[in-house]
Amino acid sequence: LSSDVCSSSLSSGINAEYGDADTLEDAMSGWGTDELVIINILTNRAYNTRLRIANYYESRYSDTLWEDIKSETSGTFRTALKALVMPEARFLAEEMRNAMKGWGTNEDTLILCLMLSLPDYDTVQGIKDYYQTIYDTSLEDAIEDEVSSPFQELLVEIIKRPKFDEKAEVDEEGVKADYNDMIEFIDARRIVDIVYLLTSRSLSHISMLQEEYYQEQGVELYTVLESITDHHIKDGLVSFMSVASDYPRYCAYELHNSMDGSGTDEGSLTRIITTRADKDLKVIKTLYDEMFDKSLYQAIYDDTSGDYRRTLLALL
After folding, report:
1. Prediction pTM value
2. How large is the average pLDDT for residues 144-164?
Protein backbone atom coordinates (compact mmCIF):
# COMPACT_ATOMS: atom_id res chain seq x y z
CA LEU A 1 0.00 0.00 0.00
CA SER A 2 2.78 2.44 0.93
CA SER A 3 4.54 1.68 -2.38
CA ASP A 4 1.32 2.45 -4.30
CA VAL A 5 0.90 5.70 -2.40
CA CYS A 6 4.50 6.77 -3.12
CA SER A 7 4.14 5.87 -6.79
CA SER A 8 0.87 7.79 -7.03
CA SER A 9 2.39 10.82 -5.30
CA LEU A 10 5.42 10.81 -7.62
CA SER A 11 3.20 10.50 -10.69
CA SER A 12 1.01 13.34 -9.45
CA GLY A 13 4.09 15.55 -8.97
CA ILE A 14 5.41 14.82 -12.44
CA ASN A 15 2.00 15.46 -14.01
CA ALA A 16 1.79 18.78 -12.14
CA GLU A 17 5.20 19.81 -13.53
CA TYR A 18 4.11 18.86 -17.03
CA GLY A 19 0.99 20.91 -16.50
CA ASP A 20 3.06 23.89 -15.32
CA ALA A 21 5.25 23.68 -18.43
CA ASP A 22 2.22 23.61 -20.71
CA THR A 23 0.61 26.51 -18.84
CA LEU A 24 3.79 28.55 -19.20
CA GLU A 25 3.89 27.85 -22.93
CA ASP A 26 0.25 28.91 -23.26
CA ALA A 27 1.03 32.12 -21.37
CA MET A 28 3.70 33.07 -23.92
CA SER A 29 2.18 31.78 -27.18
CA GLY A 30 0.11 33.82 -29.59
CA TRP A 31 -0.45 37.55 -29.23
CA GLY A 32 0.69 39.00 -25.93
CA THR A 33 2.09 37.46 -22.77
CA ASP A 34 0.31 36.63 -19.53
CA GLU A 35 2.98 37.78 -17.11
CA LEU A 36 0.88 37.09 -14.03
CA VAL A 37 0.61 33.40 -14.90
CA ILE A 38 4.39 33.18 -15.32
CA ILE A 39 4.99 34.94 -12.01
CA ASN A 40 2.46 32.80 -10.16
CA ILE A 41 4.01 29.53 -11.31
CA LEU A 42 7.69 30.36 -11.00
CA THR A 43 7.48 32.08 -7.61
CA ASN A 44 5.40 29.29 -6.07
CA ARG A 45 7.57 26.33 -7.06
CA ALA A 46 10.66 25.04 -5.28
CA TYR A 47 14.07 25.33 -6.96
CA ASN A 48 14.33 21.70 -8.07
CA THR A 49 10.74 21.71 -9.29
CA ARG A 50 11.42 24.77 -11.45
CA LEU A 51 14.41 23.04 -13.02
CA ARG A 52 12.31 19.96 -13.80
CA ILE A 53 9.65 22.18 -15.38
CA ALA A 54 12.34 23.82 -17.51
CA ASN A 55 13.69 20.43 -18.59
CA TYR A 56 10.26 19.17 -19.56
CA TYR A 57 9.54 22.41 -21.41
CA GLU A 58 12.68 21.99 -23.50
CA SER A 59 11.84 18.38 -24.35
CA ARG A 60 8.31 19.27 -25.42
CA TYR A 61 8.71 22.58 -27.27
CA SER A 62 11.12 23.91 -29.87
CA ASP A 63 12.89 26.38 -27.54
CA THR A 64 14.06 26.31 -23.94
CA LEU A 65 11.90 27.92 -21.30
CA TRP A 66 14.51 30.63 -20.85
CA GLU A 67 14.67 31.37 -24.58
CA ASP A 68 10.91 31.87 -24.72
CA ILE A 69 10.91 34.00 -21.57
CA LYS A 70 13.75 36.08 -23.00
CA SER A 71 11.79 36.75 -26.19
CA GLU A 72 8.61 37.67 -24.32
CA THR A 73 9.94 39.83 -21.46
CA SER A 74 12.49 42.57 -20.87
CA GLY A 75 14.60 44.43 -18.34
CA THR A 76 14.81 43.56 -14.68
CA PHE A 77 11.71 41.37 -14.88
CA ARG A 78 13.41 39.21 -17.50
CA THR A 79 16.55 38.87 -15.36
CA ALA A 80 14.56 37.83 -12.30
CA LEU A 81 12.76 35.13 -14.31
CA LYS A 82 16.06 33.99 -15.77
CA ALA A 83 17.35 33.38 -12.25
CA LEU A 84 14.26 31.31 -11.49
CA VAL A 85 14.47 28.94 -14.47
CA MET A 86 18.24 28.36 -14.61
CA PRO A 87 20.51 26.36 -12.32
CA GLU A 88 21.85 28.84 -9.75
CA ALA A 89 25.46 28.16 -10.72
CA ARG A 90 24.77 28.90 -14.39
CA PHE A 91 22.91 32.11 -13.57
CA LEU A 92 25.79 33.35 -11.41
CA ALA A 93 28.36 32.31 -14.03
CA GLU A 94 26.55 34.38 -16.64
CA GLU A 95 26.26 37.30 -14.21
CA MET A 96 30.02 37.19 -13.67
CA ARG A 97 30.60 37.07 -17.42
CA ASN A 98 28.36 40.11 -17.91
CA ALA A 99 30.36 41.91 -15.23
CA MET A 100 33.58 41.38 -17.18
CA LYS A 101 32.63 41.63 -20.84
CA GLY A 102 33.00 44.80 -22.85
CA TRP A 103 34.67 47.94 -21.59
CA GLY A 104 35.25 48.09 -17.86
CA THR A 105 34.58 45.62 -15.08
CA ASN A 106 31.85 45.60 -12.45
CA GLU A 107 33.90 44.47 -9.48
CA ASP A 108 30.96 44.72 -7.06
CA THR A 109 29.08 42.11 -9.08
CA LEU A 110 32.06 39.74 -9.02
CA ILE A 111 32.26 40.07 -5.25
CA LEU A 112 28.55 39.53 -4.68
CA CYS A 113 28.30 36.49 -6.96
CA LEU A 114 31.16 34.77 -5.13
CA MET A 115 29.90 35.77 -1.69
CA LEU A 116 26.43 34.38 -2.43
CA SER A 117 27.95 31.03 -3.36
CA LEU A 118 30.81 31.01 -0.84
CA PRO A 119 29.16 28.74 1.79
CA ASP A 120 28.30 26.13 -0.86
CA TYR A 121 31.34 24.44 -2.38
CA ASP A 122 29.27 22.67 -5.05
CA THR A 123 27.78 25.94 -6.30
CA VAL A 124 31.24 27.49 -6.65
CA GLN A 125 32.40 24.46 -8.60
CA GLY A 126 29.27 24.68 -10.72
CA ILE A 127 29.99 28.31 -11.56
CA LYS A 128 33.49 27.34 -12.69
CA ASP A 129 32.19 24.44 -14.78
CA TYR A 130 29.44 26.45 -16.48
CA TYR A 131 31.83 29.30 -17.19
CA GLN A 132 34.34 26.97 -18.84
CA THR A 133 31.63 25.20 -20.86
CA ILE A 134 29.76 28.29 -22.05
CA TYR A 135 32.67 30.66 -22.69
CA ASP A 136 35.49 28.21 -23.47
CA THR A 137 37.82 29.80 -20.92
CA SER A 138 38.34 29.29 -17.22
CA LEU A 139 36.81 31.69 -14.73
CA GLU A 140 40.23 32.09 -13.12
CA ASP A 141 41.79 33.19 -16.42
CA ALA A 142 38.93 35.61 -17.07
CA ILE A 143 39.39 37.21 -13.66
CA GLU A 144 43.15 37.46 -14.08
CA ASP A 145 42.62 39.29 -17.37
CA GLU A 146 40.20 41.78 -15.81
CA VAL A 147 41.45 42.75 -12.36
CA SER A 148 44.80 43.36 -10.70
CA SER A 149 46.57 42.32 -7.51
CA PRO A 150 45.69 41.97 -4.66
CA PHE A 151 41.99 41.92 -5.62
CA GLN A 152 42.83 39.35 -8.29
CA GLU A 153 44.32 36.98 -5.73
CA LEU A 154 41.29 37.32 -3.49
CA LEU A 155 38.80 36.34 -6.19
CA VAL A 156 40.93 33.54 -7.62
CA GLU A 157 41.72 32.05 -4.20
CA ILE A 158 38.04 32.11 -3.25
CA ILE A 159 37.27 30.13 -6.41
CA LYS A 160 40.05 27.65 -5.58
CA ARG A 161 39.06 27.10 -1.94
CA PRO A 162 38.85 23.41 -0.98
CA LYS A 163 35.72 21.89 0.51
CA PHE A 164 35.62 22.39 4.28
CA ASP A 165 33.59 20.61 6.92
CA GLU A 166 32.04 23.66 8.56
CA LYS A 167 30.60 21.51 11.35
CA ALA A 168 33.99 20.19 12.39
CA GLU A 169 35.54 21.43 15.60
CA VAL A 170 37.81 24.40 14.99
CA ASP A 171 41.47 24.00 15.95
CA GLU A 172 41.93 26.63 18.67
CA GLU A 173 45.72 26.44 18.50
CA GLY A 174 45.50 26.98 14.76
CA VAL A 175 43.36 30.06 15.35
CA LYS A 176 45.95 31.47 17.79
CA ALA A 177 48.72 30.82 15.28
CA ASP A 178 46.72 32.58 12.58
CA TYR A 179 46.09 35.49 14.93
CA ASN A 180 49.82 35.96 15.41
CA ASP A 181 50.43 35.74 11.66
CA MET A 182 47.63 38.23 11.04
CA ILE A 183 49.21 40.74 13.43
CA GLU A 184 52.47 40.45 11.50
CA PHE A 185 50.81 40.71 8.09
CA ILE A 186 48.76 43.75 9.12
CA ASP A 187 51.76 45.58 10.59
CA ALA A 188 53.75 44.95 7.39
CA ARG A 189 50.76 45.67 5.09
CA ARG A 190 51.22 42.24 3.50
CA ILE A 191 47.78 42.17 1.88
CA VAL A 192 48.36 39.19 -0.39
CA ASP A 193 49.50 37.11 2.59
CA ILE A 194 46.32 38.11 4.41
CA VAL A 195 44.32 36.95 1.39
CA TYR A 196 46.10 33.59 1.27
CA LEU A 197 45.58 33.01 4.99
CA LEU A 198 41.87 33.85 5.01
CA THR A 199 40.92 31.99 1.84
CA SER A 200 42.68 28.81 2.96
CA ARG A 201 40.59 28.48 6.13
CA SER A 202 37.04 27.34 6.80
CA LEU A 203 34.40 29.99 7.43
CA SER A 204 33.94 28.73 10.99
CA HIS A 205 37.71 29.06 11.53
CA ILE A 206 37.66 32.64 10.21
CA SER A 207 34.73 33.48 12.46
CA MET A 208 36.69 32.27 15.49
CA LEU A 209 39.76 34.16 14.27
CA GLN A 210 37.70 37.35 14.24
CA GLU A 211 36.58 36.67 17.81
CA GLU A 212 40.18 36.04 18.89
CA TYR A 213 41.33 39.28 17.27
CA TYR A 214 38.59 41.29 18.97
CA GLN A 215 39.32 39.77 22.38
CA GLU A 216 43.03 40.52 22.09
CA GLN A 217 42.93 43.88 20.32
CA GLY A 218 39.56 45.35 21.35
CA VAL A 219 38.73 46.19 17.74
CA GLU A 220 37.05 44.24 14.95
CA LEU A 221 39.44 42.63 12.49
CA TYR A 222 37.43 43.81 9.50
CA THR A 223 37.77 47.46 10.58
CA VAL A 224 41.55 47.06 10.73
CA LEU A 225 41.56 45.51 7.25
CA GLU A 226 39.47 48.44 6.04
CA SER A 227 42.10 50.83 7.35
CA ILE A 228 45.00 49.23 5.47
CA THR A 229 43.26 48.55 2.16
CA ASP A 230 41.19 50.50 -0.33
CA HIS A 231 38.86 50.14 -3.29
CA HIS A 232 37.82 46.67 -4.37
CA ILE A 233 40.20 44.62 -2.20
CA LYS A 234 38.76 46.39 0.84
CA ASP A 235 35.20 45.65 -0.24
CA GLY A 236 36.08 42.04 -1.01
CA LEU A 237 37.85 41.35 2.26
CA VAL A 238 35.14 42.99 4.37
CA SER A 239 32.48 41.00 2.50
CA PHE A 240 34.41 37.78 3.01
CA MET A 241 34.72 38.44 6.75
CA SER A 242 31.03 39.31 6.97
CA VAL A 243 29.96 36.10 5.25
CA ALA A 244 32.14 34.09 7.63
CA SER A 245 30.68 35.68 10.74
CA ASP A 246 26.98 35.96 9.80
CA TYR A 247 25.86 35.10 6.26
CA PRO A 248 22.16 36.11 6.56
CA ARG A 249 23.16 39.45 8.10
CA TYR A 250 25.58 40.04 5.23
CA CYS A 251 22.73 39.46 2.77
CA ALA A 252 20.45 41.80 4.72
CA TYR A 253 23.06 44.55 4.60
CA GLU A 254 23.62 44.03 0.87
CA LEU A 255 19.87 44.21 0.24
CA HIS A 256 19.72 47.47 2.16
CA ASN A 257 22.71 48.86 0.25
CA SER A 258 21.05 47.98 -3.06
CA MET A 259 18.07 50.19 -2.21
CA ASP A 260 19.63 52.87 0.00
CA GLY A 261 19.92 56.42 -1.28
CA SER A 262 18.99 57.59 -4.75
CA GLY A 263 18.54 54.88 -7.34
CA THR A 264 18.35 51.11 -6.98
CA ASP A 265 20.93 48.44 -7.74
CA GLU A 266 18.46 46.01 -9.32
CA GLY A 267 21.22 43.56 -10.20
CA SER A 268 22.25 43.00 -6.59
CA LEU A 269 18.64 43.00 -5.42
CA THR A 270 17.72 40.34 -7.97
CA ARG A 271 20.72 38.11 -7.27
CA ILE A 272 20.14 38.01 -3.53
CA ILE A 273 16.36 37.54 -3.56
CA THR A 274 16.29 34.86 -6.27
CA THR A 275 19.26 32.80 -5.09
CA ARG A 276 18.20 32.80 -1.42
CA ALA A 277 14.45 32.33 -2.03
CA ASP A 278 14.54 28.57 -1.45
CA LYS A 279 17.18 28.69 1.26
CA ASP A 280 17.29 31.31 3.99
CA LEU A 281 15.35 34.28 2.60
CA LYS A 282 12.86 34.17 5.48
CA VAL A 283 15.73 34.46 7.96
CA ILE A 284 17.25 37.32 5.93
CA LYS A 285 13.86 39.06 5.78
CA THR A 286 13.40 38.79 9.55
CA LEU A 287 16.89 40.21 10.15
CA TYR A 288 16.30 43.02 7.67
CA ASP A 289 13.05 43.98 9.37
CA GLU A 290 14.86 44.10 12.73
CA MET A 291 17.90 46.02 11.47
CA PHE A 292 16.31 48.80 9.45
CA ASP A 293 13.47 51.29 9.83
CA LYS A 294 11.59 49.95 6.83
CA SER A 295 10.59 46.31 6.27
CA LEU A 296 12.14 44.43 3.37
CA TYR A 297 8.71 44.07 1.76
CA GLN A 298 8.09 47.82 1.97
CA ALA A 299 11.61 48.68 0.78
CA ILE A 300 11.23 46.50 -2.32
CA TYR A 301 7.71 47.84 -2.94
CA ASP A 302 8.97 51.45 -2.79
CA ASP A 303 12.05 50.89 -4.96
CA THR A 304 10.65 48.71 -7.75
CA SER A 305 7.63 48.59 -10.01
CA GLY A 306 5.51 46.50 -12.35
CA ASP A 307 6.07 42.80 -12.94
CA TYR A 308 9.57 43.00 -11.49
CA ARG A 309 8.13 44.19 -8.19
CA ARG A 310 5.43 41.51 -8.26
CA THR A 311 8.05 38.81 -8.80
CA LEU A 312 10.33 39.83 -5.96
CA LEU A 313 7.50 40.38 -3.49
CA ALA A 314 6.01 37.01 -4.36
CA LEU A 315 9.31 35.34 -3.47
CA LEU A 316 9.27 36.87 0.01
Report:
1. 0.93
2. 97
Mean pLDDT of 143-157: 97
Summarised one tens digit per residue, pLDDT across range 163-199 is 999 999 999 999 999 999 999 999 999 999 999 999 9
Q: How far apart are CA 89 and CA 131, in angstroms?
A: 9
